[in-house]
TrEMBL record:
<dbReference type="InterPro" id="IPR014710">
    <property type="entry name" value="RmlC-like_jellyroll"/>
</dbReference>
<dbReference type="InterPro" id="IPR015392">
    <property type="entry name" value="TehB/YeaR-like_dom"/>
</dbReference>
<dbReference type="Pfam" id="PF09313">
    <property type="entry name" value="TehB-like"/>
</dbReference>
<feature type="domain" description="TehB/YeaR-like">
    <location>
        <begin position="12"/>
        <end position="89"/>
    </location>
</feature>
<protein>
    <submittedName>
        <fullName>DUF1971 domain-containing protein</fullName>
    </submittedName>
</protein>
């Protein structure tokens, strides 16, 4: 995964989600806006992050507290709940 560029700044974070409270929109293919990067930050447990963008190499990552997931601007992706988890999404631009 590409790192978030140093020139990009954090501007907001989602609420903390768990396996029961995750919005269904995050479980379906969706994308960030133009110029917006995101980081899926797992606080406890794990969640699968799937990049499904037709314009990018498809990839699957198991995110844990030791591995956050970087979402590029306009990159189509979704999350899959694989068990108990607590996570948030940080947004950058």
């Amino acid at each position: 995964m590409k790192p978030i560029p140093a020139a990009i700044r954090h501007y907001r974070s989602s609420p903390e989600f768990n396996q029961d409270s995750v919005p269904t929109a995050l479980l379906r293919d969706h994308a960030t806006a133009d110029g917006v990067w995101a980081s899926v930050v797992v606080l406890e447990g794990s969640v699968r992050y799937a990049v499904t963008d037709a314009g990018a190499e498809r990839a699957d990552y198991l995110l844990t507290p030791a591995l956050s997931g970087t979402v590029l601007p306009r990159q189509v992706h979704h999350l899959e709940i694989v068990g108990p988890v607590r996570f948030r999404v940080d947004f950058y631009r």
